[in-house]
Amino acid sequence: MERQRPRRRGQGELEAQVLSALSEAEGPATAGWVRERLGGDLAYTTVITILTRLLAKGAVTRDRTGRSFVWTPASGVAGLAARRMRKVLDSEPDRGAVLASFVTMLGPEDERLLRELMSQPDAEKAEKAEKAEKQESTARP
To answer: CA 69, CA 42: separation in Å to the nearest integer?
Structure first.
């Protein structure tokens, strides 16, 4: 009988799943809780590695409780995606070319939304992002 390999996750998919699980917690959560929430098929060390990477990216915070840590999301999946986009932009020497190329790839609705966001004052943009983060965390089952 041939053993089937587990499906390989896409880049960032596991980080998004861990962040999503953390967002569902009623407060700070342990790595063990996150592992159970994801179905328990991941190694505990894998969950710790992902949480540590998210910590380095500023997407989660951690506090020591006894001999271990509890983890809290600093932002949702949208915030993590925004950080990834910013990292890519920061790594390119010609920011203008990257942004121009990105904008030309947008569909009409995304372009309209981007124009609307860019015309808003910074405080209003921040408020909208915070509202989206809250909706994202309450929309999960």
So the answer is: 18
Structure tokens at 100: 């121009």
Per DSSP, the residues of 66-120 read: TTEEEEEESS-HHHHHHHHHHHHHHH-S-HHHHHHHHHHHS-HHHHHHHHHHHTS
CA distances from 22 to 2, 70, 74, 96, 127 (A): 35, 10, 10, 36, 22
For 57, phi then psi, to 5°, come to: -85, -5
The token duo for 135 is 């909706």
Contact 51, 18 (CB under 8 A): yes
Read off the pLDDT of residues 103-137 as tens digits, 9 standing for 90 and up. Answer: 999 999 999 999 998 888 877 767 777 776 665 55
Q: Are 44 and 34 in contact (CB under 8 A)?
A: no
pTM of the entire predicted model: 0.61
C-alpha closest to that of 72 among 63, 81, 80, 64: 63
